[in-house]
Amino acid sequence: MATGSTLRPRWLPEKSFPSYAYLPGRQPHPVRDPAGHSYHCEAIQIAEEASLDSDMFLWGIDLFNHGYYWEAHEAWEGLWQVADRGAPLRMLFKGLILLSAAGVKIREGKHAAAVRHAGRAAALLRRLMNAPDRAIERALGMSLTVLAEQAEAAARIPAALQATQPQAVFDFILGSRSRGMPIRSQKRHSHS
Questions:
Q1: Whether 77 contacts 100, CB under 8 Å
Q2: What is the Cα–Cα distance from 24 to 162, expressed in whole angstroms?
Q3: Residue 132 neighbours by CB under 8 Å, 6+ apart
Q4: What is the DSSP letter of 179?
Q5: pLDDT of 134-163, one tens digit each?
Q6: Residue 60 near residue 72, CB atoms below 8 Å
Q7: CB atoms within 10 A of CB 118
Q8: Which pairs from 120-123 meet CB under 8 Å and 24+ separation?
Q9: Of 26, 9, 7, 17, nearest to 162 (Cα)?
Q10: How many whole angstroms separate alpha carbon 190 and alpha carbon 10?
């Protein structure tokens, strides 16, 4: 399984990661427990619009790439909620949410659930492959076919768990490969 999470790129380096990557039953619930890492924060941030260029999307990528799967799920949930029903972006966000759930299940050692979530994510991602607009693949930094295959493959390999530390369980990294950072971040950094 993937290691070296600290060597993975950050799309929003100014944001601090939570103090732990939540695993049900192993740490305090992030928003319901007073000891949770996001207890005083809104449980799910609702986006103003569903966008691949939003900080919420990029934050979800950062969280996912660094093994914060429950937290990535929460970030993308806000985008999924505002995406138009039946729209490709809504399907993408649902696929990423399911992929994040698979990451949680892999870390929990729940093989059957991980395979189920990864399979559902892969099916949604494959349905998007026929979309004429390649913005989704550019934002993900890989083809939907490759992402679907990677998701299914990762769910079949048991993870060597670390109970409290974030652990990337997928060998791939989401995000634009354009000059090493997403397009939005390039714009943000070019004015510095």
A1: no
A2: 14
A3: none
A4: G
A5: 889 999 999 999 999 988 887 777 665 555
A6: yes
A7: 26
A8: 121/95, 121/96, 121/148, 121/151, 122/95, 122/148, 122/149, 122/151, 122/152, 123/148
A9: 26
A10: 16
